[in-house]
Amino acid sequence: MSEVNRSVPPSSGGWTRFVTARPRLALLAALVITALAVFAGSGVADRMGSGGWEAPDAESTYATDVLAREFPASQPNFLLLVDSGSATVDAPVVVAEAARLVERLEAEPGISGIGSYWGTESPALRSEDGHEAIIAARIGGDEKTAGETLDRIAPAFAGERGPVTVSLGGPVAVQHEMQTIIQEDLLRAELIALPVTLVLLVMVFGSAVAALLPLGVGIVAILGTNAVLRGLTEFTDVSVFAMNLTTALGLGLAIDYALFIVRRFREELAGGADPRTAVGTTLRTAGRTVLFSALTVAVSLSAMLVFPQYFLRSFAYAGIAVVLLAAAAALILLPAALVLLGHRINALDLRRLLRRRRGTGATEAPVSPTGGGWARFAELVMRRAPVFAIVTAVGLVLLGLPFLGVKFGTADDRQLPAGAESRVVQEHIREGFPGSPGGGLEMLVEGEGTPAAYAALKDRIEKVPGVLGVDGPVAADSAAYFSVLPDGEAVGEGAQQLVRDLRAMPADSFDTSVTGTAAVLVDSKDAIADRLPWAIGIIVVVTLLLVFLLTGSVLIPLQAVVLNALSLTAMFGAVVWVFQDGHLSGILAFTSTGDIETTLPVLMFCVAFGLSMDYGVFLLSRIKEEYDRTGDHERSVTFGLSRTGGLITAAAVILAVVMVAIGTSRVTNTKMLGLGIALAVLMDAMVVRSLLVPAVMKLTGHATWWAPGPLRAFHQRFGLSEGDPAPAGSTAPEAPGDRGAPGDAEPSAEAEGISGAGVEIAEPVGR
User: Fold this and answer.
1) Separation of alpha carbons 77 and 138, rounded Å
2) Alpha carbons 104 and 575: distance in angstroms, whole number
3) What is the separation, in whole angstroms, between the first and last Cα of the chain?
4) 0.85 exceeded by pTM
5) Are the C-beta atoms of residues 696 and 389 closer than 8 Å to each other?
6) Are 264 and 285 in contact (CB under 8 A)?
7) Nearest 5°: phi and psi at 481?
8) Exposed e or buried b for every residue in 100-135, given b needs 16+ CB within 10 A?
9) pLDDT tens digits for range 582-604
């Protein structure tokens, strides 16, 4: 290793000097801030919502708000399913008990628009077998207020009530139960992920001390993000689903960044540097890459801010916060800890204890002069570059083909596990009641109207194709509404087309707007389709710019975007094949609804693309560093993969473990998110970074690094890279004695990482 990489130059900066000169102060400040974050973030989940799929500026949202205010009975969100047992719902004792339930419900504050089968005699509120009936009401307030009201009244209504059994359902109950289950599942996921992650880190690092550092960084990032989200709930709506992303990215990215920094630190120690010098060099090299990587991930996640649905915006809030906090912890707390630990970073080497128990007496594993297994693998791929490039690309495209048949829908009670009370209620209503209760549309009519004008409008609505029946109007002051029952599935293509036809229907002097489940879905799809080009444009343009600043190449940024997109094909294909089409639903314990919730693919794209860029930056930074030093294109690719192949694979496996733990959730959308991103991460690390990147870079050759003169000058002034810049005009490789082969001083505990079926471990030279 060259002498320039063993010293901390005066230009290291105040940041490096601070963490190396006052490490205890840095750790103490972090401890105080973390303690404050624990206090500030307490109870954050209780303040979050479980909805957010609606576009707030959509026609359906406006109509829903007006109907809830003017006609509470038109928008019931709370249902009491009354089961009369062996008697019928018309038996006198059942009628009397139902009247008592209605009377008690009317006395509860915050509840309005109460109606029941016994009060209206509507056949839609009575089951076809005559043994169940519905009491409907509306709980007012936002999601938090409605949940608190439900918690307060549930014990007084649910369960055995004289001759009947009452179960609670409706959208409020579904969302509240979903929120509770997500919190429970997140705790279980953390209890699964943390010990498994610690074991994997010990296998990668060998040292138990080194293995604990990434977990510490992750915990700081998670606690800090919870505090940020708690503050955001004071100003805007935040989805409880974002908690899952906080945990996954907090652990995953903290481990990624810590792996990269600790690996470089141990490499510098192995090369003979003292701890402070090693930290300084690490921050100037790996530290730059970590900061750059965090920026690329944050940009991908920030693209979700262009969407109006707070479900998607919540993931941007959580993701950006946790990425930046993970990077800050990795670049401030971790270096301070490394200065204090020094060579003790290698303490408690469990692998050495295992070797002694086996009686091998070995203390160090040999280091391959050719760079180890990853270097040989890179050479193999580049020797057969056309074959690997074509076969891999075609294979990824084939895996993504099921996504061509995707159908977008809306989340409902079937997201919950089969035994959840609110889901059971909705299933009873869906299967046992006539007319698909809750699946109709409401047309809000505003403006002065006469009975004749309303009758004419009703007649016009009935003639629209796809209308099964029309009830109403229900009028009050200068507004009224009609209930429209679609012919067919409540949110099927026919119902969605009916929404569009009703909105296009002339209504004379009235202002009309349509809401209902199908209308919300139509508006959500339109909002996403309208903003999606902007989101993709932001991600692509900023990615091209950032990768150019890293590499100075015009071609590499284009390759990064295309290869990242290819890495996501398997995820999208699997989402449709598994969750939409229902394959593996028995094994994974979920109910397929035949469609995918509209916002999920957008969320998964932004998260998975960002993580792919994270790994891409790690690899490209080392390739660029070696190319700047030697000017040898193929050697640079081999060097980059040998130094980061095992690191990226190990980080991907650990992140996949965290995502799979999230994927054990009993809520289908969370399961889809966790398992889908786990698959994308593994495909990116093990297929795209290992096969496609070296194959494509071999095919493009030295043209990979081309840039026109003006852009080259721009990069020389503003570009970023890992390592110190090569001397001006120097492109020839250094003598072997100056630097050594790519495999020299290789801390392959993390550079070789997880290889094949097991973990290939070797200790750093010079320990």
Assistant:
1) 5
2) 46
3) 16
4) no
5) yes
6) yes
7) -145, 155
8) ebbeebeebeebebbbbbbeeebebbbbeeebbbbb
9) 998 889 999 998 899 888 999 99
